[in-house]
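Quick one:
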Amino acid sequence: SEFTYKNLLDLNDSRKAYQSPLAVICHIDLNAFFAQCEQLRLGLSEQDPVVCVQWNTLIAVSYAARDYGITRMDRLEQAKQKCPNLIPAHTAVFKKGEPFWKYVDHMPSPATHKVSLDPYRREGKKVLNIFRSECDLVEKASVDESFMDLGRLVFRRILTLFPNILEGMTSKSDTLKPIDHLPQGIDFKGYIIAKKDDAENESAIADEDSSFLVEDWDDLVILVGSMICYELRKKVEEQLGYKTSGGVGKVKTIAKLASGFKKPDQQTIVRNDSVPGFLKYFRLTDFWSMGGKTGSYVKETLGEDISISSIRDQYSSPTELAQALDKNYDLASKIFLMIRGEYALPLEERELLKSMAANKNFRQSIYKKADLIPWINVFIGELILRIQDLDDEYNTISRPTKMTLSVLGSSGTRHSKQCTL
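Output:
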């Protein structure tokens, strides 16, 4: 084996696991989450073409609705033309003057209502609680996606599958014994991305009968991680009804790309040696954190059409890449590691929020205090409800110490007032 007992034992330490060459990270994403929430709330099936609506805009499109060619770029009227039996479900709303949200049985108006996303936050929290009940290190990436360091779970599963694995170890620096057999109980779950030695079909998926599926311990821990990822996804589906997609890899960036590779209700497994073949299906700007201004700068500097494999082949060190990126050594080092599947970052459980905002864009200017006060009641009600949800999530009592009222006028001038509570 190329790996040592220390590499394996580090999986059992949440502080070290992500740096081990045997690290196992998974990313789970809820498919068309807001639309799924509305589908389940209304008692509809997966085959019903549901869209989640905010005024006249689509903010989530179910996969059944996507079969009609509907996208989030469509307005509601356009979507109905594509699918006459479309089921639009509007988000919950606050009514002017009321400090609580509710669902209404008519299409609300932005003149008298304010959108509430609290129902989706609450459902997302239920999913997160399932992950946290099973895994000791979970990073909430957004309301509908999470990263998990599966190190401890994989380590315990390996000890179950190979109960004698630590026998004969005299030093942590000793190399692990070769894998001479795969015990019963291993059932790999998901699409396994091919290595160069695997039989590969046109969609990059390895032949599951290939003898190259498990060549060393890095292959095995990733594939065991796929079993755990699948179990977590199925637990969410069984308890809450939500379908998810998953990705398993050594680092967060690869796991996130993998979770979006096959959707919906699928998962993708990327072993270390299959990273180059997997990344040929992506551009550098597809990487999490490489969009926006950073991605635009890299494309302008290295070339609009340059591929990940070209960057990997042309620049053999971070220093060489930095010369091409105006001596931006930090960015060059990040990209150099990222395109090799080696950009290892620790998972971070989110800290308690330090600030919270409630806002609304008014279609028409407000000139009278009597028109503004009812909306302030809405804002205060929304913030109180969110603080209560935060208390439940973190099992604590959080109370604001300051409050700021900010108004952006039609001229673009902002006026703010702050007070201590």
